Amino acid sequence: MSLLFKNVKELVRDIDEFINTVEQGVLVFKEGVINYLNDEKTSFAEKLERINYLEANADKLQRKIDDEFLMHSILPQNISDIENMLDKIDEIIDISKDNLYQFEVEIPYFPEEIVQDYIRLTNTSVEAALHAFPAVRTFFREPLKVKDILTKVFFYEKEADRISRNIKRKLFHEMDELQLSQKIHLRYFALHIETISDKAETLADMLSIMALKINL
Predict the structure, then answer these.
(1) How far is the C-alpha of 26 from the C-alpha of 111, rounded, in Å?
(2) Sequence ranges of the domains in the chain
(3) What is the spatial distance between Cα 43 and Cα 40, in angstroms, rounded to a whole number?
């Protein structure tokens, strides 16, 4: 049985739209980073504008969902956990926007021989988030199935960690042509990108606990 009652279909739609909006934001982040790495300035600027819109829309939807929970007294025993989960989802698009703007503000220089490493890191980090969103949708409908879905979130988060470590080793052990300040700068951008998968892992941990509590 769905956790959300049939008489609150608007709430179900709003939650789906909220998740969809955050998911789109993460995809725009990925495309924006790749645009930057490939020196596609016009496309990168378009992604900044798009992620601004999506982040603002996600905030509006979250406020609307919070109001609807209170209005319909949905799952009052779980409302605090659910609101915290929605906050964790919103953090993913917030950090996606903030991190994409770091590229625009700091204008990091990426040597050609390391660009593909950063693209792999971006794709992998984003995959962790993209696998967390189906688990959230499932939580509201079939919480027993959440645990199996989350397996890929943890896999991609660990893979992002591995790629990030390899980038740092490459920067500090192999790229002697770079100044130390450049290496440190690029290291921080690996951390910025990796943060997406870290946020996804935090959300996955929370979902695991919430699903367990509901199934008890």
Answers:
(1) 25
(2) 6-215
(3) 6
CA dihedral angle for residue 48, residue 192, residue 122, residue 49, rounded to 10 degrees:
0
Enter the tokens of residue 191: 């951390």
List the one residue out of 18, 81, 110, 124 whose CA is nearest residue 211.
Answer: 81
Q: How far is CA 44 from CA 48, 100, 103, in A?
A: 6, 9, 10
Whole-number Å distance between alpha carbons of 2 and 6: 8
Amino acid at 148: D
Give the CA count within 13 Å in the CB-facing half-sphere of 130: 14
**Which amino acid would we find at residue 31?**
E
pLDDT digits (tens, 9 = 90+) for 61-98: 999 988 887 776 555 556 788 889 999 999 999 999 99
pLDDT on residue 71: 74
pLDDT digits (tens, 9 = 90+) for 176-197: 999 999 999 999 999 999 999 9
Q: Can you give the pTM of this predicted structure?
A: 0.92
Per the CB < 8 A criterion, the answer to whether 205 and 90 are in contact is no
Decide yes or no: CATH 3.40.980.10 for domain 6-215.
Answer: no
Q: Confirm if 138 and 116 have CB atoms less than 8 A apart.
A: no
Q: Which two tokens stand for residue 88?
A: 């964790």
